[in-house]
Amino acid sequence: MPVSVVIGSQWGDEGKGKIVDLICRDIDIVARYQGGANAGHTICWDDKTFVLHLIPSGIFQEGVDCVIGNGVVIDPVAMMKEIGMVKDLGYDVGGRLFVSHNAHLIMPYHKRIEEAKEKWRDGEAIGTTGRGIGPAYVDKFARSGIRVVDLLDRDLLRKKIIASMEEKNAILEKVYGAEKVDVEALIEEYVEFDKLIDPYITDTTELLCRSLKQGKRVLAEGAQGSLLDVDFGTYPFVTSSHPTVGGCCTGLGIPPTSIDRVIGIVKAYSTRVGNGPFPTELNNDLGEELRQTGHEFGATTGRPRRCGWLDLVALNYTTMINGFTDLAITKLDVLSNLDEIKICTDYVLKGKKIRRFPSDLPSLNEVEPVYVTMPGWNKDIVGITEWNDLPVEARNYLKFVTDYLEVPASLVSTGPKRDQTIVL
Ligand code: GDP
Ligand code: IMO
Ligand code: MG
Asked: Quick check: 12 and 224 in contact, CB under 8 A?
């Protein structure tokens, strides 16, 4: 019953979309298991570039079905917009896209509460994507969320929205001094989603488990990155779900014993969007150079991504948690113009060298990275597809990473397009 999981090993935007789109050619179903439209997964081929936020990155490969699992929080407006985009591009969605009846819905008040809360936090704002993710997961765990299945019963939906809105509007108005949400307009809007979303709604857990029994192969697509995991990331500067491997089982309803491959997507350097600790951040011209060369601007919000050197202490930690079986190392080409490249191998905390990734914020803010400096290759490598065609310095860089992490690389990405990849 083979399930492969694709997981961001850093703070997101590692190139998961590209890798999922590439490797799902040999897969039957691609399934998203957590997060929501906070994700931005970019897929490029020929001269085309598309960003997916909710629909799994298998949608552009014929013969691949796509599942949005119970662990995802769904913004129906964003989903319908995305379905429209995919259809306009000439891809079938009907009979290929399946949405879990158990997934929770993002409501307009989630976005409004998030906006108010971020303002409230003032200097401590998380720098969220503003997609309502946190408040939607709060409602899920507070057992007051509204689920996809609720769309199917108009009367019940109406009752649930009214019940929820009483509390939400009171919070918005009395706690945050923010504008209330118009209940009737909201009900009218969501009642309409019933018709639009109905064709896609199903019991995706049953679908996935039946498919696995039939010998079909599933690729679980993580969103965000392991260091944004609500339990294992740089809390509280994290997202509100579990991008790490455990999230795949709870977010899809598949057994852990069905997983036989866990692919860690590793960007050849580090980036982070939003606030929070980032030990190897380059707040200088070099960071700006990486941002420009790597086009490091958020695929969802357009915000400039913070850039820095590769952090093996952090990667060792996320490798440990996820049990990566192999790595896909992306954006190696972005490092091509550098005379030398640094890799962080240890931290110094209170005068002591450590390899452990600290879990508390004060320590993470305090650690000083220890670097190994490697020679750059100063040669354009965009589009290289053979290992032996890589300059020796680039091969050494990759070897240093895989030796340190004790995990082999199965793919090296040398450009944004599907075919700009070395398969090992
Ligand atoms: P995701 O969220 O992990 O799917 O990653 P994003 O799509 O947000 O960000 C990755 C960005 O890097 C996108 O613009 C991709 O098109 C691009 N990309 C992916 N792999 C490579 C690569 O190997 N080289 C270069 N130059 N760009 C890449
Ligand atoms: P993909 O799937 C990078 C970040 C936000 C913020 C924090 C919490 O494209 O890799 P949220 O809106 O989730 O409550 O924001 O998480 N964040 C991401 N950063 N890539 C993403 O997704 C992200 N999704 C959320 O910037 O710091
Ligand atoms: Mg992204």
From this structure: yes
Q: How far is the CA of 192 from the centre of ligand 3 (A)?
A: 30
pTM recorded for the entire structure: 0.97
Q: What total of structural domains would you count in the chain?
A: 3
**pLDDT tens digit sequence for 120-141:** 988 889 999 999 999 999 999 9
Q: Of 197, 221, 247, at which residue does a domain stop? A: 197
Give, in degrees to the nearest 5, the angle at Cα 258 between 254 and 262. 100
Per the structure, the complete domain to which residue 144 belongs is given by 104-197
Ligand 1 center to residue 293 CA distance, Å?
A: 12
**Residue 19 in contact with ligand 1 by CB distance below 6 A:** no
Q: Cβ of 285: how many Cβ atoms within 10 Å?
A: 8
CA proximity to 218, closest of 30, 22, 26: 30
- Rounded Cα distance between 156 and 149, Å, is 10
Distance in Å, CA 268 to ligand 2 centroid = 19
One domain for residues 161 and 109: yes
Asked whether 412 and 388 are in contact (CB, 8 A), the reply is: no
Closest of 355, 288, 133 to residue 224, by C-alpha: 133
Q: Which of 197, 225, 255 is the last residue of a domain?
A: 197
State which amino acid sits at residue 42. Answer: T
For the stretch 168-226, pLDDT in tens is 999 999 999 999 999 999 998 888 888 899 999 999 999 999 999 999 999 999 999 99
User: HSE on the CB side for 155, CA within 13 Å?
Assistant: 0
Of 7, 298, 291, 304, which is closest to residue 131 (Cα–Cα)? 298
- Cβ atoms < 10 Å from Cβ of 95: 9
Cβ of 32 closer than 6 Å to ligand 1, yes or no, is no
Is residue 50 over pLDDT 60?
yes
Residues marked as catalytic? 13, 41
| Among the bound ligands, the one closest to the CA of 126 | 2
What mean pLDDT comes out for the span 270-285?
Answer: 97
Q: Is the CB of 40 under 6 A from ligand 1?
A: yes
Ligand 1 centroid to residue 46 C-alpha, Å: 15
pLDDT confidence bin for 1, thresholds 50/70/90: low
Residue bearing the CA closest to ligand 1, atom 28: 416
38 Cβ below 6 A of ligand 2: yes
